[in-house]
Every structure is written in structure tokens, then in C-alpha cells.
Amino acid sequence: TGFKSDFEPRTCPEKGEVPEEILDGVRPPLLRARIEYLRQLISSASPTSHTVTNSHPHLNWAREQGLADYQRTLRIEVTLAMLAAGTADNAQAMLEPLHLLSHNGATGHRELEYLYCAAKAHQTQGRLHESARLYNRYAFVAMQCLREEAQLPTRILKHADKISAQRDDVGTRLPARYRRAYSFIVDNLERPDLSVCEVADEIGVTERALQSTFKRFLGLSPSEVIRRQRMERIRAELMEHPDGSNASLLGVANRWGVQHRSTLTNGWRKQFHEAPTEILKG
Predict the structure, then answer these.
(1) Residue 181 and residue 275 in one domain
(2) What is the tally of helices (H) and strands (E) in the chain?
(3) Residue 45 burial (CB < 10 Å; 0-12/13-18/19+)?
(4) Which part of the chain is the HTH araC/xylS-type domain (predicted)?
(5) Which three-class secondary structure string do you get for 36-61?
(6) Residues 136, 192: one domain?
(7) What CA–CA distance (Å, rounded) separates 105 from 219?
(8) What is the DSSP letter of 220?
(9) Is residue 19 part of a domain?
């Protein structure tokens, strides 16, 4: 049910229909309903067909079940079928609920789908100025999505390199056996129940031996290492999003195993000599 670059609809071949024998072999009712719906949609997506209506039963079913995201998917699919069938007015009516969502903050790929369909519908209706405006918005959002996706691997690699460098720097100062203990700590920082006793058991030494070795080679106890590493990671994450709130501050702390605000505040002051809320002020 796609479109040519000049906005002209192309006819869907009848070969796209799902054979009855395949449908008969599908047992899960939800999947079967989805396939049956797609069969009907394919057969209706033709300039000679006028069977696509605004009251599509599968869309009604999704609405009754409260499946908001799936309703959105269905509206996009039915809109494309309507445009292929040349019923632009019906397509515009099908898109109308998504118009409100777009104005209320839908972004990224979700907004792209709506903008594409809306631009096509307006163009088919001869509303060229509005179509051009929507298509310009579509192109702008598409470039934003591409830019964000292109930057994502770099961000991930930088974060991984930073963590790896921190781990290697500390690890080289410990005897081989105790490097495993440090690696275990770093790999489990997000666990609130991480304990010094568990770390000692992991490498087969007593808690006292672990404490003594860490103090001797790092100048820190295992508990202090856990605290410092957690604070570093919380701070690094917050610096990437400095416009957060106090609620997001505690949320980041929770992700790194710090469950209480007092623990966060005390640990942060010991390490950075300021209140954690200072980072939110830039």
C-alpha cells in the first residue's frame, strides 16, 4: 500500500492476499484476527475498491480493549489503504485523532508516520499549501531522527570506554585475585543489596582479607569503593541531562543502587563537597 515519490498511489496486487490454508493453520486468536484484518485491508487498498470505512471492526475491537498504541498503528495502516483507494476525505477523518496527539508532544518515528499520512491526504485533496507545510515538518523530523540515531553508537562507546578506563586504572593497582572482586563490584553497582560479604565470597576470601587488601592497595575500604563508584556513575548520568528535577535525581540514584535520599546526599557531599542538587543548577 505504498506510494510513488510523486504522491501517486500504486495498486496493490491481488497476489498479496493470504491464502485460506495459511489462515486455517493459525491458532492464536489475536494473530488470526490480525491476519484477517490485513487480508481485508490489502483487498480494499485499490483505486477500484471503496470498502475501507471509518468503522473498521478491528479498530473498534482495539478501542474496546483499550489498546491505545495499537489503535494508532491501525489508524495509520487504514489511512494508507484509504489513500491507495483514493478516498482522501475518509483518510483525513481516520487521521483526526492522531492530529491531537501530534500537537500534544508526539515525537520521533511516531510523529513521522502521522506527518507522512497527513501530507499525502492533504495533497490528494488539493490542499497543496498545507501538504507542503506538513511535508516540510516530516523532512525536519526525519533529519532529527537520523541525527539522533547516528549519535547513539558514539554515546554508547564513549560511556563504555569511560567505564572501562576507570575499571582498568583501579584494577591494575590490585593483586590479580582481588581484581576479580573489583570487577564484581563494578558489574553489580545497580544492586541495592550488594554487600562486602558477598564480594568476599565471590573470590573465596574472608571479609577481613578483602578489607585489608583494598585498604593497602587502594587506600579505600570495599564499602568506600562501592559508594564512590556509584556516586561517579550517578554524576556522569546527571551531567548528560542537567535539566532534570529532584525526582529524576533520585530516579538516577535508584538505578545505581542508592535507594534513600539521605544515602545519596551524604555520599555525594563526602565525594564532591556539595549537595547533589547543585548539579541540577548547572
Answers:
(1) yes
(2) 13, 0
(3) buried
(4) 179-282
(5) HHHHHHHHHCCCCCCCCCCCCHHHHH
(6) no
(7) 50
(8) S
(9) no
Residue 74 CB-density burial (10 A; 0-12 exposed, 13-18 middle, 19+ buried): buried
Tell me, yes or no, whether 192 lies in a domain: yes
Domain count, the chain: 2
Task: Show the domain range for 183.
Answer: 174-280
Closest C-alpha to 275, from 261, 265, 262: 265
Helix 68-84 to helix 29-44 angle, to the nearest 10 degrees?
A: 20
Where among 152, 184, 212 does a domain terminate? 152
Domain assignment present for 15: no
Q: How far apart are CA 113 and CA 183, in angstroms?
A: 44
| Mean pLDDT per 10-residue segment, the chain (282 residues) | 43 49 68 82 68 67 86 88 85 82 57 88 90 90 80 63 58 87 93 94 95 94 94 87 66 91 91 83 62
